[in-house]
Fold each of these.
Amino acid sequence: MPYLELQGLERDFGTVKALDGIDISLGEGEFLSLLGPSGCGKTTALRLVAGFDRPDAGTIVVDGKDVTRVAPNKRDMGMVFQAYSLFPNMTARQNVEFGLRVRGQDKPDRRKRVDDLLELVGLAHAGDRYPHQLSGGMQQRVALARALAIEPRVLLLDEPLSALDAKVRVQLREEIRRIQLELGITTLYVTHDQEEALSVSDHVAVMYRGRIEQMGAPAEMYSAPATPFVAEFIGTMNRLEGTVVDPGAGTVDTGGRTITVEAARGKPRGARVLVLVRPETVQVAAANGAGGNTLTGEVLTHTFLGPVTRLRILSGEASLIADMPTARAAALPPGSKVDASLPSDEARLLDLTEEALPEIGEEPGPADR
Amino acid sequence: MLIGAFKGANGGWTTSNVSQLVHQPYIQAYRESIEISGVTALLGGAIGLALAYAAIRDGTPRWIRSLLTTFSGVAANFGGIPLAFAFIATIGTIGIATQFMHNQLHLNVWQGADLFTKTGVEIVYLYFQIPLMVLVIAPAIDGLRREWREAASNLGANAWQFWRHIGLPVLMPSVLGALILLFGNAFAAYATAYSLTNGNVYIVPVVIGAYYTGNVFNNPHLGQALALGMFVVLVAMMLLYIPLQRRAARWAK
Ligand SMILES: Nc1ncnc2c1ncn2[C@@H]1O[C@H](COP(=O)(O)OP(=O)(O)OP(=O)(O)O)[C@@H](O)[C@H]1O
Ligand SMILES: [Mg+2]
């Protein structure tokens, strides 16, 4: 039985449809990430669950009870905000204690619980510091402890790591997951960082323009994107527009080049499709005219990513990205003529609809910061 | 001023000007001044704070805020004879509002005569004290983050608990500073009270004015001594303010 359910949530701000029918159902103790570019409605969805805002349509159900109209201070939800949410006039300890204090819990009980929580987030030594005396990462740990103190029914996190630097971000996200698993707390996590979402979640829901494009396990989202948007947003993906030439052989014409894609078998002849290929499945070698399932082109740039190097290859009109072991990439410097062979069985195919494809940058970040 | 306060009418040194201050009628003038300034600072501060918060918090349309700050900008600078006259013309004995209440509504709750007493002076002072509070406290209210209110409510606090534990403590350093400003503002006001009551409300600036302009008799040195006394009162207020402020802001950077 689902523990947290969002049913047909809609929210309009004037002419902006921030949420356009959101359905989510989450089991007890599960961790779901809401992932999407800036402005897609993630925060709006979370605020509805927390009760800071009311939906124009739809319901929110927790543990079988409709809480859509319940005031936020009666909902028992723990929320961690993006940044600067600690009460500045209280020490870390007083911040964590606040929820227990307004609930009228005894002082000795409170003290014990606050100690435990500070210990849990690794801040037992910093309880008496004021927020401005804590680093950004420490502040977010305190915010997490504060949200957990009231033993919330659902933990809500709105981009809690986005104001931190990369190293702390990775460390803290793992810690959030560890604590979440340890306490078995149902969690809704908002982020625009796909790596973050994939690495810590049980489920990922990719949002775009107020809707959920696809929801599934992280591996599923990566290997089997259901829409062009998801394909582009999760990981890096080559997209080749094409037309099905021979449904029997599974061949697709991509701008003058014919390639074989298993997934194209059985598609209607002449159908417009989008061939999706992960960069790590593209094999690159010096051009030898051997044909096969290859596109021939010229290496434009190298991007060093540690163990792998990312090559940008220009083939006719199309630009292609391929990842290869750094050790071998040196043999193919920019300017080299290369053959990029595409895996016929690992490439995915999506029907190309009339709708314009979204353009997404490398790192979609909130524009409103 | 400092030197003048210790000079006699014949030019020699004397402490008689200063020592007179602690006797009647001057001590009474200080009392009245401090009371009027204190009352209007506290009342004006409380009302101004509430107004500013109501206009600034989320959910209030932006135009209300612009209207309030524009109006406050004008009203806070509206003082002296024009202000006194405006009040006399509306709620004075033969003011429009007083007459209307009396003749049309047959209400006799306000006769208008109180306008020329201490209460009247306080009412008129509030007319510039409240807007001044709105102006000086607005930036501090802007500094209250939405996240604090939401986090508090998320943790189970109601609006009152938020104000008691977070909102007011966070604003307190700014509120204290604003109150000092309001106190000084009222303490130094002269023309408004003088033109309203024709000198009948006996506050220090009015007395000083009398000694300078020679209404009573011309003794500028006693006037300077009175001014020195005002300065001492303000210094005393600051000495009270500094430790309070330090305590209120102990959590800040
Ligand atoms: N209070 C509001 N008034 C008007 N429009 C709003 C309001 N809140 C959100 N919006 C609009 O609704 C849309 C969704 O906003 P939301 O904050 O939910 O996006 P988000 O996915 O959290 O983005 P980000 O990654 O930038 O935080 C945006 O177009 C935003 O401008
Ligand atoms: Mg957001």
Amino acid sequence: MADELTPRDQPEPPALAGETGGFTSQLPTKGWLGQMLAPVAGFGVTLSSMFKPTITEQYPFEKVPTKPRYHGRHQLNRYPDGLEKCIGCELCAWACPADAIYVEGADNTPDAQFSPGERYGRVYQINYLRCIFCGLCIEACPTRALTMTNDYELAGPTRRGLIYEKADLLAPMREGMLAAPHPMAPGTEDTDYYRGQVSGPAIEQVDWVAEWRPEDPTIDAARQQAEGSR
Amino acid sequence: MTTTTPAKGATSGALVPEVTFTIDDVEVSVPKGTLVIRAAEQIGIQIPRFCDHPLLKPAGACRQCLVEVATPDREGNLRAMPKPQASCTLEATPGMVVKTQRTSAVADKAQHGVMELLLINHPLDCPTCDKGGECPLQNQAMSNGRGTSRFVDVKRTYPKPLAISTAILLDRERCILCQRCTRFSNEIAGDQFIDLQLRGARQQIGTFDPAVLGFDGAGTASLFAGADGDGQPLTRAGGMPERDVLSGPAGPAETDTSGRPFASYFSGNTVQICPVGALTGASYRFRSRPFDLSSTPVIAEHDANGSAIRVDHRRGTVMRRLAGDDPVVNEEWITDKDRFAFTWQSAPDRLTTPLVRGEDGELREASWAEALTVAAEGLTTALDGSGVGVLPGGRLTLEDAYAYSKLARVALRTNDIDHRARPHSAEEESFLGHAVAGHGIDVTFADLERASGVLLVGYEPEDEGGVVFLRLRKGTLAGRTRVFSVAPFASRGLERLGATLLSAAPGTEPEVLDAITGRADGDLGAAAEALSGGLVLVGERLATVPGGLSAALRLAQRIGARLAWVPRRVGERAGIEAGTMPALLPGGRPVTDNAARVDLAAAWGVERLPATRGRDLSGILSAAAGGGLDALVVGGLDPADLPDPDLALRALDAAFVVSLEVRASAVTERADVVLPVAPPAEKPGTYLTWEGRPRPFPQALTSTALADQRVLHALAGRLGVDLGLGTLAATHAELDQLGGWDGARTPAPHAVYPEPPAPGAGQAVLATWHLLLDAGRCQDGEAFLAGTAPRPVARVGAELAARLGVTDGDQVTVSTEHGAITLPAVVTAMPDGVVWIPVNSPGSAVRPTLRVDAGAVVQVAAARPATDGDDA
Ligand code: SF4
Ligand code: SF4
Ligand code: SF4
Ligand code: FES
């Protein structure tokens, strides 16, 4: 073992101090005039900008819309019947280079079904003091539950307040959606949801919510929607 | 560690010849009989695999490990085998040429094909799957599979997950039929609770369906419907699809005494070895992902085996525990108790601040400074009065036990210290001082599977030992070991060891032991023959049998067997070595030996040590209850475990009590000062196994809780004594310096055994021991595990059952003048006039209710009203 040195063990040739060591600049060399003017060339930029129009955005008095694909605050989406898309798989947290996301999964139970299938995200937090808005979490999400909005107003006086909870991130209920938890649409499996085959609440789901949470504000609109689509 | 790691290939003693062959053009020499997949591992070549497991027999079930093989024929010409071969079932032969996926396109294509087939019906629901992130199927599908699927048809699906037991869930869609789980149940644990069923595409793992096999009262494996917030499994199943018809069963099931297909004590291991997410644990369901977890390798606190485990924690909360890989102790297996029972450490009744009993008689929160001062004042007063007794309890690390031992001798100037929080005897004390203390590692786990014969006395290897049982079973299955047991009946554990029962009613064990001689006929003679050069394992229960331990010593000497004492609790051996016993000082130094005391006093830097032997636990408690001791320092013990729980409570009420506890308990309720100490996950330390093997472990969780030794160090400081045990390092340095003791030992006990009790009409002799899963405080808060505990029953012999007029399932009442326990009867082959009930199971708390122990005469009667069949 000791007789032969592997290539790794052999000493490196000493670095040549003070030499460029074979380095050649890739920049084109300037002619003699260029070299003469180089010290004052910077003033040219300054002078020419004095004659360009000024652009000042009057934020926050005027809010300019962002580009449509701007990476803003996240949103946790819902299926048309109101069930959450997030299944608490933690893939977003895994993908996140800034460790900004914290997720805890939990069981969907017969009396508390929040998302299709077995699992839902019980705790979902994004720490906007950490997030760098890279969007890797969006790419990681297997159910398209997590997307980004164009909302860029993410500042606040406390650190705690910038940790957004699930309730802050959940997409608002659209008209006709039925608030979760409620059972999946009758006769469907989670894959039917993933394939987009559920287009709105079914009357059975509305009845279930009416029985267990009669005061739920989404019942009426959801019932209309369910009856309309019959 | 000098004892155990056997030299390579040395199991049979003879040198195994080597074979030389090539893998991927690398020449490798391995002992004959080595599998190709193992040889490849040795030179760092990874062949993908699922069913292969080094501790299970080769199965060749998954076909993922295919390689291209050529072997020389008789003339020496290399001939390629016509098809790729499974490397996990193929033994290396001389001159064989193996090409793995690294050098052979054929092997690579074969592996890709197998992977594609495995994935055809696989749901690939990794985002919901608990295995995601640590899944061999995920990993190998990436490394040895196609990037995209070509499968366009509808996948076979099953409703999921099935609850195999309350602790184990099965997702049949994800199963790749590798049979690791069933092979484990068969080959290692011996309790087949699941098996392969049906054929072809429908082939699946399943429980034995009672609907078809017709067990009485057994439930069909139901769909898991989630759990309540407090961990209670939900039983409601509204809104869930019905169980499908494809889950047909096959084969006979082994059932426990309640008629349910038996829930194994080792079932959690199948979750760990399942290479996919088909078997998952209910308590870890959806709780975290591998990247959330920090892992700390530690030692399990539940029994004297000191199994290596891994604690996985997330944000300061333990999420799960897995078996560690430790060939010298637990191999890769642990009991479900070691795996699942950890919630007790963070239970809601956990103590976090010191408590002091105020003027009003109520405990109130106090600062450490105040609590220690109050404790020291109380103890000082007691020292001026009639003294202090110390009861450390049987769950301590070596360091903590040593601190108790030193505190008692140096600061409290007494030998009234006893860690044995269980039935004990003076005979046992001599036995421990003579045959256990200071003996180092003698009998080891490896010896268990190599011995020609093993005799168990007062010891149930499965219920009271866990992994000891697995080692014994390994030896018996290999045909090396014969197991004999002196017990009233053959438990399921003994049956699975193929053990020979040397039937003994409680109290008659010494007679049976004395009858084991070479001249005896039948089983006794066979035992004598097998045991010469074998092992005698005695359990802590033998202390309740007068003359039992003396007879065991006699036997071992007579037939030339080695003797080992196997207690249940993890701290028993550490207590003995640290000298937390009335007549023992650290290292097995006898208290009554002048030289030993002088040696220790010099090491401890004190003038002299108390010279009279102290009182044992019962003596301490009687003294405290009767005013003979003014104060008690009590560690982690439960009065219900003590020989006389009522006496214990009276003693705790009468004396000034300083309690060092993790959780509020019957002791802290009565204590005057409560000092909270760290549970095992929050302190570093060293457990001693029953072998005497030190098992050091680091602190898993960040915590400000103090280990017992640090609290005792601070307490001694208030008493004006510097124990010098403020840190672990200081304790270790002191223990190292102290060293062993080679002077005189405690003499062996020579107790005579009295006539065994003769039960009259309506009476029976009580036999009783702990079940592995019972109502113990260290299993609190784990509903999933509790659901797999065997149902408590009363076992009676056929004659007694006939006299009582009961049959299986009828209620039987066992009573004394203090109380009664009623349990369903199970008629068992056992000596007449004996009744067995579990010590501490739900509905069967023997010591607090009956206030007697094994060997006592109790009343037995059929419970009225007679059962009419619907209340089983
Ligand atoms: S956008 Fe990037 S940094 Fe922000 S949460 Fe998602 S993955 Fe993390
Ligand atoms: S078993 Fe593995 S591959 Fe299958 S769903 Fe679970 S994580 Fe994914
Ligand atoms: S359940 Fe797991 S261990 Fe058992 S056969 Fe299926 S894949 Fe293998
Ligand atoms: S690992 Fe070889 S067939 Fe499964």
